[in-house]
Amino acid sequence: MSELTTIARPYAKAAFELAVEKGSVEAWNEMLFFAGQVASDEQVSALLSSMPTASEQTDILLKVCAEQLNEQGQNLIKLMAENKRLAAIPAVADIFADFKAEYDKEIDVDVVSATELVAEQQDKLVAALEKRFARKVKLNCSIDEAVVSGLVIKAGDTVIDGSVRGKLDRLAVSLQS
Question: What keywords tag this UniProt record (predicted)?
């Protein structure tokens, strides 16, 4: 996986710089997301690996993605095929999405609670997290009754465990030592 990331980073960076220059970051994000989904499909992946030449691989992928890719997107696919890097397309899409989030000053935050958060609670949480991270926050809420009460918040590498389950676990570890 890290090898694909290393391979994909220059392609994603070049695509992102072009997208910023042309003012089409959102369009590029959508194109790469679609191409990444197509390339990661098991049937398409098997079909592409059975094709002996880059030209044939490019033709197949471009036929599937023709409606969603503009000329520059098609050129990126052709370049990656010539360099035998089509397997890295999903990684390119992921890295591009990370660049876009950084550019947009956005952060995805996963929130796990024991019960569903009402809109007012979500609004207060978004306001507090935007202040803490100095970015626009997009909440992804889920429910896990094992949390018991409170919240577990994950944003990138940051984890804030304010759940009763987390406190009980820390207390158990403390008592055992």
Answer: ATP synthesis, Cell membrane, CF(1), Hydrogen ion transport, Ion transport, Membrane, Transport
